[in-house]
Fold each of these.
Amino acid sequence: MSDYQPRIQDMQFVLSNVLGAPDQLKALPAFDEVDADLMQQVLEEAGKFVGEVVAPLNRDGDEIGAKWQDGKVTMPPGFQSAYQMFWQAGWPALSAAPEDGGQGLPSVLEIMLYEMLSAANHGWTMAPGLLHGAYECIKHYASPSLQETYLSKVGTGEWLATMCLTEPHAGSDLGLSRTKATPQADGRYALNGTKIFISGGEHDLTDNIVHLVLARLPDAPPGPKGLSLFLVPKFYPNGERSAVHCDRIEEKMGLHGSPTCVMRFDDALAEIIGEPGKGLNAMFVMMNAARLHVAMQGIGLLDAAWQKADAYARERRQMRAPAGQEVKPKSAAEADFIIEHPAIQRILNTQRAWVDGGRVLAYQTAVELDRIKHADKDTAAQSQRWCALVTPVMKAAFTHQAFHGGSDCLQVLGGHGYVREWGIEQIVRDARVAMIYEGTNEIQAIDLVVRKIMADGGQSLNQLLDDMKAQSQTETAEATQLRKLTQSIVSAAPQDPSLGHRVADDYLRAMALVMLQWAWQRIDAALDAQTPELKSRWQAPSKAFRQWVLPEFAMRSHIIETQCQAA
Amino acid sequence: MSDYQPRIQDMQFVLSNVLGAPDQLKALPAFDEVDADLMQQVLEEAGKFVGEVVAPLNRDGDEIGAKWQDGKVTMPPGFQSAYQMFWQAGWPALSAAPEDGGQGLPSVLEIMLYEMLSAANHGWTMAPGLLHGAYECIKHYASPSLQETYLSKVGTGEWLATMCLTEPHAGSDLGLSRTKATPQADGRYALNGTKIFISGGEHDLTDNIVHLVLARLPDAPPGPKGLSLFLVPKFYPNGERSAVHCDRIEEKMGLHGSPTCVMRFDDALAEIIGEPGKGLNAMFVMMNAARLHVAMQGIGLLDAAWQKADAYARERRQMRAPAGQEVKPKSAAEADFIIEHPAIQRILNTQRAWVDGGRVLAYQTAVELDRIKHADKDTAAQSQRWCALVTPVMKAAFTHQAFHGGSDCLQVLGGHGYVREWGIEQIVRDARVAMIYEGTNEIQAIDLVVRKIMADGGQSLNQLLDDMKAQSQTETAEATQLRKLTQSIVSAAPQDPSLGHRVADDYLRAMALVMLQWAWQRIDAALDAQTPELKSRWQAPSKAFRQWVLPEFAMRSHIIETQCQAA
């Protein structure tokens, strides 16, 4: 079965026809020279690179995988040369600032690029996927001299970067981290400790690797406020090798193309980034962008799984479909294409409903990220609200869907889905990790409900829904109900400290469905002016959303109400 | 992390306290010597064998897997000797008839044995799992001379068996099969064709392998009615090797301990089983038992995943749990056990709700299977109704839950769940196949709704619900609503030939929830007489069922109603 191929036309329709993103962006001074043609051109070039260079390496990435020997990691065949082509063509620096060697283009193009890359080859994409956060972190917090050495190297992707956060006993709870930073006479710090689950901690894609490491100064208080952020490269500017060692890589369910490293810091000399005790702040500055990247992995992988299932369903014949019995002469073939069977149509259209609607939300979120940077204060505050509330919803909902909906797509292939030959089981295995990293999906839900919704008594949620209502000119019953649920939680919470935690997953799902409903309203509105063929492409998933996806809202609403009543 | 260990006490509680199965069985003349003590003893011995011999081989089964070379398959380390111990101890023949070398014990013991085996080592368990169907098939349809040679060999498990049904272009649609059977002068048939996805088509566990093969006689009509069933062994009684070849084994997502073979029949001399053109009937006779076996894989694998998640949640500390803040002095530890966090409790108790409730349904179904064979005609008809309706529901619902709920259990381990070291990702990969084989879950749903519910206008569904009502002395609102939904589908279907197919998945889920609700009513009733400790063990999943699982019913009901109205 053929590799994933980006379908630029579908993505472009959401970007331009549904969202009018080029016009939204043109209104920002930073992008006054960006127009629909330029964006289209970038996307087409990106699609070509992804389809021709990155997608064909996916199978070997899984089957051969990254290999560790004596502290060195050899990446799967073709990964290195593809990466060298990638950074030299300027792709990692698409939205980086021109003064750092970037192209200064809108974030939405970067987001769309990563959607395609993740769909084509999740393992390979992990490598450049991490440099964007590191770039932002160095740009905002590092000293001028550190920036001099590292900013454009990381910003352009010439060197790749890691985020060294997790330790064996400190997963979701970074406050438990124990890695020590001991001040040295020369103003540097000696790092000692072990970090685990470090994606790309060691590899042969680039000449150097820049590690950003959370560690604790000798006098630091326990907990998250005692953490500072440090930078230590694989090779120092003088060419000397640092005392950062990759002790092994993990055997995993999937994502074999990305080495997940155990990193040992053995008196590794590092420099501090930002102020002591502010390490988590520096990490959190890039959190919304990083979570949106992970949401794009979800959308991309689900689209890749859908492509395989759709192609299979159009060439495989099994049994008579119930509707087909009426219209088709019995003599035509022994059986109908399985895409004519209602169970298969439901799976395919439901997953399209998630992918298409997800793109609306994701691309708009990327526009909001640019507004936070470049728009006036009021607009930026509104955009900040969108990103704060919508990003955890997207991260959790779309990584969930990539795995569970990807499994539904696998089901379309029957036994052929379970064997490696067709490549769809790899997608399901690869996708599973995205529900865990960058904050587990349960933590996204707690972040949303406890830290964001409850923290301001539901005010920003109501404002977000007001903004959405203004754009779609109507408010659905579900959106109104979400306001009521929010009020119920906020009212009941003071008597019941665990209520927010108990309803967090349901609330996140309910909100995801309201967001997706809004996305489909926008798509439906954009269809009015279109040709019948184009309409029929989008109407099937629109109907699937209403028939099969949205009914979950009432279930979540019921669960939340019951919990609030029991509070 | 330690291997799966059967928890006989939990299983025993369902068998005896909840269902009173020993008394139910004692009422059948065939089992008048069976009592609770004997059953307990068999289960404890079985648990010991599973925990000590089979479970420790699971990791190697996955990582080393079955290996093919030059047509021969070598099973993973330890598999052969464990299997030899297994059959020599009489385990495969637990419920086989004494005259065939069996022990003549109730089916429920076999079902409970296979639940434990699947939980311990799904790959290994595939080998003996298939012999039961083959034994029944030979017993009911083969000629006396074939029975003379094969019946007790297969019944005792001395020789293993396969079911050769699927072909490259004929998966769910067996009617498309093309393998040919050409009559020979000596009364035998020469088979020619290729079968795929043949579990255990070749291996080194036993001296001989008995293949049951669907093929088409020269004058056979097209479609399912042209299929006949044949038997061809790997070695004929005279020691000669048959022309059945294993051309390769599949690379799969999981289940690496079970070789999935491509089998080529190259003028392989076979004998017919039963009448020409009745091949599918012979296969279908064992369908309910085979599907129940697959449902047990689901229950067992989910229990195994739950065990790992539960153990991890009791030793891993991360962050403060909201309820814990109140009661625990801050000084006790840096963080709470994750089992104190609501999100983790929800996952663990929800999966227990499925496992515990599933056991009630499965063990009762096994009792009904014995009633079909041994009870009076009226009771047997009632049992037949139970099995016909409940078995597809269980196969689909519990294999679905093993994968999706198993993935939830994986989530409890965070990043540690995604690495191979902890063994839980293997469970999720292994479990995925059970949603596909023995009839995909979508086909189970169509079988239930179109072939069983709609075929008699909902009559047998109503009778089943009457029987359930008689046993639990009350009918829930959900059960009453299921009757209404059934009536709506039956009324609307004549105008809308695809309605049954469109609502099949939702109907199966709705029915699964009604069945599980009934199971939990039975458990709750059995708790009245118990100690507080034992009550608390069962009350948490009981509450989880009502809070988190049952609300799906209203969603399914809404979807079905909407489809009926649109009909």
Amino acid sequence: MLKDTTFLATQIRAKKSFLCIGLDPDLEKIPANFHDFDQPFFEFCHEVVKITSHLTVAYKINIAFFEALGPDGWIQLEKLVKVIPDECLIIADAKRSDIGNTSKKYAEYFFNRLGADAVTLNPYMGMDSLEPFFQYKDKWSIVLALTSNPGAADFELKHTDKGDYFFEEVLKTFEESSYKDNIMYVVGATKAEYLRIVRQHCPNSFLLIPGVGEQGGDLKQVILDGRNFTEGLLINVGRKILYPKSVNTTMSDVLTSAEDYRSQMAVFF
Amino acid sequence: MLKDTTFLATQIRAKKSFLCIGLDPDLEKIPANFHDFDQPFFEFCHEVVKITSHLTVAYKINIAFFEALGPDGWIQLEKLVKVIPDECLIIADAKRSDIGNTSKKYAEYFFNRLGADAVTLNPYMGMDSLEPFFQYKDKWSIVLALTSNPGAADFELKHTDKGDYFFEEVLKTFEESSYKDNIMYVVGATKAEYLRIVRQHCPNSFLLIPGVGEQGGDLKQVILDGRNFTEGLLINVGRKILYPKSVNTTMSDVLTSAEDYRSQMAVFF
């Protein structure tokens, strides 16, 4: 594990920050001057990285936004990964999963070729669908447990015949496996009341927490209920940092917003 | 719906075939002469399409195998979609899902830019995570229900507090929605004993059935238990058609294997 738990805890304490900045580039929202570039997504995200890397522990790249552009999006994505400083964890937010021989191809792409440190994964198809990712011992697999969207109620929050929530079944299955040391879990900040249940199942794991910011999750509650002895939290903020104003956001606004989130976190150190 | 239920039923009856050919191009397995091309995946798949399109109702393109190549893989993928004849359904086997604004980007790519007729989707995150796909009324959304891999036992086959299998909860949720007319479901052929349960929940839907061939599912049982009044089945065979021999497969072997599967199906018409 190149960027292991100790590495992450050290970064979090040094920066007094749990911040993970979500890179969700959107042509309709990025500052107008980036539209003149041949590779506006790369250029915009590169600028964001340059001005925020001292404030953040990780970057979570939203793969869909690059994929939507076709082959050129992947070219910009591959350039972007190369310019993110080594001190930051690079998360490919791809939510992949498939049968084993297919998951192997996804893992090869995201870990070997792209060079991401971590990739988000969907657990629905079960253990063997994610094993090709888990087998990369120097990389992180980040498994969806309880997501931040309303649809989490449809299946994740249904009860099993044992009385557990379905997302608990997911946590138990992976925590009982030999792979647990390189697995993190996604738990939405909008579901902060469930964080204590999550921590019963995986007290030692890192959690990736989306849903603070645009989706309205409570930052303080997440830190109080989710933090553990290795810090154990990466709190993602995407749109509220990239596009803090509804129109005419500047890079200075981006910096101010990132500093503001980091300040709200620094008081806990 | 451009290639709707009636269109598919008509194709299936005309061709006497439920066949969906899985395009899973693998450099280690394709005939050696394709290695000399700049775009071996495109060239190989294009040849497969040329010699098999009269036998098959659909092609299921395994996106991971193209994604693994980086930007060049997406260029080959986009070329491939353009050469598949209109009479065949084009399925992007991508197993995507995410929160709404992100799923919207995936849907834009696969339906609008790539031009696929259908995309496979993972239901874990619930209804709102897939709605951006469902809103394309002239396209098919193909939701994972019960997959063909052993890991299906981990979650899909767990019981809910109501005594149902978890995959039944998935089927019920989508069948009760207003989107059901453009949803198909994935049900693995290796789980043929569950097909009757599946059909109780979605008697009218098309099912995409992987797991015949390499994974050992029983073709006859699938047809007997899965077929409905609009035929209702797309039976995927990938590796057993693309690579029928363990070494030195030729295009003639590919044709022979596709003809053999189609013959096994034709006796049911």
